[in-house]
Amino acid sequence: MATICQTLSDKNDNLWTYTAEGVRIWRRVLICIYPYVVDKESWIYTKDVMYWMNGR
Questions:
Q1: Is the pTM of this model over 0.70?
Q2: Quick one: which of 1, 11, 16, 55 could link to 51 by a disulfide (CB 3.0–4.6 Å)?
Q3: Is 22 in contact with 16 (CB distance < 8 Å)?
Q4: What is the arithmetic mean of pLDDT over 32-53?
Q5: Helix, strand or coil for residue 12?
Q6: Which residue has the higher pLDDT, 17 or 56?
Q7: Cβ-Cβ contacts under 8 Å for 18 (sequence gap 6 or more)
Q8: Is 42 buried (19+), middle (13-18) or exposed (0-12) by CB count in 10 A?
Q9: Which backbone phi and psi does 40 adopt, to 5 degrees?
Q10: What is residue 36's predicted lDDT score, i.e. its pLDDT?
Q11: What does each C-alpha distance from 28 to 16, 23, 36, 47 come to in angstroms?
């Protein structure tokens, strides 16, 4: 979804800030998950073994 937001946004239509009734925007999702992507050791939930072992 991030690729779609980035690719399809332009100066007239910004999909990062688009909202619809009852729908969360993707930007908020990325803001929430970004710290865990930067520092996967801070993840408090069950580890995804494949990503955990082979990921960044």
A1: no
A2: 55
A3: no
A4: 78
A5: coil
A6: 17
A7: 25
A8: exposed
A9: -65, -20
A10: 84
A11: 9, 11, 14, 22
